[in-house]
Specification:
single chain, about 600 residues, alpha/beta, Rossmann fold, 9-stranded mixed β-sheet, 5-stranded parallel β-sheet, 18 helices
Length: about 600
């Protein structure tokens, strides 16, 4: 095992597969498709996996392109681009006057292609006439105090138009027999988040669409400078105004927690409305945020907890993260395997929360997607290792790489991963640093993926009982825990749980009066990453690992067997429970 822990994966050179499918000249929009049912899963009728693994993408297609998509396993066409998304400033241009005819027009066309429509709502936007209401309270930028063109998140009227449009859309969907259709609720943040502060790429585009000839105040940041927000802040934190930085740790954490809770409560209220109006629909919401800058307002575990009671699935836009599918943001300095490993912690942060709180899980790659066919099996392996029931692909990529999808579609199935190790995401440290993902967390979690699958949990999940699902907790980076969290962790350790952490003290926050204790804690002997990882491997040695030729392969243990991915340039011989199998380069297998 230790020799294996010292091996390194080789870099995969890009390769090209040419597919002869015709490309569309039409405007683009996503597609969704269902691959193969692995086994019958007992679900409620609102569940997304009634028909097995679902595969999403989108764009308007020609009949010829639809035939290609069907051969690759596509089941849904997402009505998102081409002006098809349901947005209030387009769909209700005057009070009570609705422009939703495309629901009746496009759904039959999609059905004629042998697919089902997937409706996309962005009800965060508002029609211009709403801003003439005497009670309109706009969201305001905290930095400049400047209003934008949306209701304050903290307004009691923020969901008024949401209710009306969803009610009317539901009536039309029911009339044409689409009451079971998949529906995306409240998406279109900069990176696909269901969040409400202004950005430049998502909601910001809608503002410019509404007011094409105006100079608009649209930018990322904290959007809580309105009077209603300040009143809520005072009520829940005792603060008169938000702190400008994290120098006062208690005030800053209180502010960030309140800010995230406001966003989470908003999407929870939206989920309640959608479920009431669409009781049989397959609802889903996006989860993105990538490296989680605090001002995006997305609370990953809180979002999953808020929407799960309404049968809303999580669709993570971090499949492949910002690294696996694109050589952007410095990702080109890493090999394919290193990019795969760095993406894993981001995706598992979303998938673990969805699993723990009972929300079904879908994956979606960032846009624009990577075009290397070598990455397609890796993305499918990602999704399956997260227990996903849905897989999104962008139509351009799908059409170009249809041959790859046709070849591997039968391999993609719903599985039920078994993970005994969790990695701790230090939200307190992250919030106080007010930065992207803590680098030590990210680096060690990435290296750990070379040897095993794992989940990612945070303080909320620990307080809600997540530790009962694991044998070992890895704490790559943390210096602060609340007294309640620290107490639960110590009790779990005394009951046999194994904690692997760095030597630095982990103290009760904010008093710093107590440290992490417990009789069954393994402390890494030095600051070397390999030492910490070796301790983790030792702690679960009885679980067994997959043996392979000379280089490691990526593995996920599941109820159905072992899921194995080979990202090396050569094929690999693996042995699982006495059974040998050769896995082709860039391919995955489920060995039962």
């Amino acid at each position: 095992m230790h020799a294996r822990a010292e091996q390194h994966l080789t870099q995969r050179a890009g390769q090209t597969i040419v597919h002869g499918g015709a490309m569309s000249d039409l405007s683009k929009m996503p597609i969704s498709c269902s691959l193969r049912r692995f086994s019958i899963v007992q679900t409620q009728r609102t569940a997304i996996n009634e028909e097995g693994w679902q595969f999403v993408s989108g764009e308007p297609l020609t009949a010829a392109e639809a035939k290609i998509a069907n051969s690759a396993g596509v089941r849904f066409l997402e009505l998102n681009g081409g002006g098809w998304a349901i947005k209030p400033h387009v769909s209700e241009t005057q009070p009570g006057v609705f422009n939703l005819s495309y629901i009746e027009q496009q759904a039959p066309l999609v059905r004629s292609y042998g697919m089902a429509p997937l409706f996309s709502f962005c009800t965060r936007c508002i029609a211009p006439w709403q801003m003439t209401r005497p009670d309109f309270e706009p969201i305001r930028c905290l930095q400049h105090g400047t209003p934008s063109h949306f209701w304050s998140v903290w307004s009691n009227h923020a969901h008024d138009q949401v209710q009306r449009i969803v009610h009317e859309a539901a009536r039309r969907m029911n009339a044409i027999g689409e009451e079971n259709a998949p529906v995306i609720i409240d998406g279109f943040g900069d990176f696909g988040e269901p969040i409400f502060p202004q950005g430049l790429l998502g909601i910001g585009r809608d503002v410019h669409e509404m007011y094409p000839n105006q100079t608009l105040h649209v930018h990322p940041g904290y959007w809580c400078g309105d009077e209603l927000a300040m009143k809520s802040l005072k009520q829940y934190t005792g603060l008169d105004t938000p702190p400008s930085d994290s120098s006062d740790e208690v005030a800053w954490v209180s502010f960030i927690r309140w800010y995230h809770d406001g966003m989470t409560q908003y999407i929870g209220a939206s989920a309640e409305i959608y479920r009431k109006e669409l009781p049989r629909a397959r609802l889903m919401t996006f989860m993105a945020g990538g490296r989680e800058p605090c001002d995006l307002g997305q609370d990953n575990s809180g979002l999953a907890k808020a929407v799960a009671p309404y049968g809303v699935a999580i669709r993570s836009t971090s499949s492949g993260g910002m690294y696996l599918g694109a050589a952007s943001m410095g990702a080109d300095k890493w090999s394919i395997t290193e990019r795969f490993e760095r993406s894993w912690a981001i995706l598992k942060r979303h998938a673990t929360a969805a699993k723990f709180y009972g929300a079904q899980f879908w994956t979606e790659p960032p846009y624009p997607p990577g075009v290397d066919p070598f990455l397609i099996p890796a993305r499918m392996f990602e999704a399956m290792s997260c227990g996903a029931v849905g897989f999104h692909e962008w139509v351009d990529h799908l059409l170009v790489q249809a041959g790859v999808y046709q070849a591997i579609a039968s391999r993609a199935v719903i599985v039920h991963p078994l993970t005994h190790v969790a990695v701790y995401f230090p939200r307190l440290d992250h919030w106080i640093a007010n930065d992207i993902h803590p680098e030590d967390f990210w680096r060690i979690a990435s290296k750990l993926r070379r040897f095993m699958d794992y989940d990612v949990i945070d303080d909320r999940m620990i307080l809600d009982g997540a530790l009962r699902n694991y044998q070992c907790l890895v704490i790559p980076q943390a210096t602060r825990m609340t007294a309640e969290e620290l107490g639960i962790l110590n009790q779990w350790a005394r009951s046999g749980g194994i904690i692997v952490k760095r030597p630095e003290a982990l103290r009760e926050w904010p008093s710093y009066s107590r440290t992490l204790v417990g009789t069954e804690i393994i402390i890494a002997s030095d600051m070397e990453d390999q030492s910490l990882i070796t301790r983790v491997l030792e702690s679960i040695s009885d679980q067994g690992l997959v043996a392979c030729d000379e280089r490691p392969v990526y593995t996920t243990r599941c109820v159905e067997g072992w899921l194995i991915l080979n990202l090396c340039e050569e094929s690999q011989m693996v042995k699982v429970n006495g059974r040998s199998a050769r896995i082709a380069s860039g391919m995955f297998e489920l060995i039962q």
